[in-house]
Amino acid sequence: MKKRNKDSQNGKALVIASALGIAAVVVSVIAAYNSTMKRLVPTGISSGESSWVYSNSSSDVPVQNNVSGVPIESSKPSSTKKPTSSEPAEEVNKPIVAVEIGNVLPVTGEVSHPFSNGELVKSETLGVWKTHDGCDILCDLGTDVKSMSEGTVKEIKDDPLWGVYVIVEQSNGLEVHYCGLAKELNVKAGQQVNQGEIIGKTGETNQSEVLQQPHLHLGVKRGGEWVDPMSVIDTST
Hints:
The protein has 1 helix and 14 strands, in the order αββββββββββββββ. It is an alpha+beta fold. A hairpin with a 3-residue loop joins β8 (about 150-160) and β9 (about 165-170). Mean pLDDT is about 75; it is low at about 40-100.
């Protein structure tokens, strides 16, 4: 009988302890809820609707971070402005091109022997196969030879094979060789020449091509390399 009373008392105590534990949990939840609700503050009102944000401040002053009409500062860096279609984009590494338009023929005549572009051709005078690094323009002996463009007389030579020739370094980047001239010249080294200015006259000094018809041997270099003279001359003029 005593054992049953003891078990009954233990059961009641367990029930009471459980009820107290549940009550403590409920009180904690209510306290946490009330604390949270105190920290929720309105952040903006639009069309009768409010939005709320959780504040870490212990103050009850509302923090309005989304007031209508006031922009929010962004931590992202502003993007670089891209040019519009009306704003020309800056050209980068634009290549420099030699101005070749407007080079005139130094003499008027037919090209008898064109530029060989590195190919071997047989020389009528020397009887050997060699490259022809210029073009031969037919003209009478004593024909005035004109400067293709403005520039400076870089050098004057009297070569055993090519005869008397004048090298003009043009302001457009080309280096022009006028070969087989008569010894009486109209220019000297270092002289500035204009386009169409007479350099000298054709002669018989070009021994490497002496068996050909009278002509001017014209050579043109661009960037140190031989190029076809006729490709840089405006033949329409």
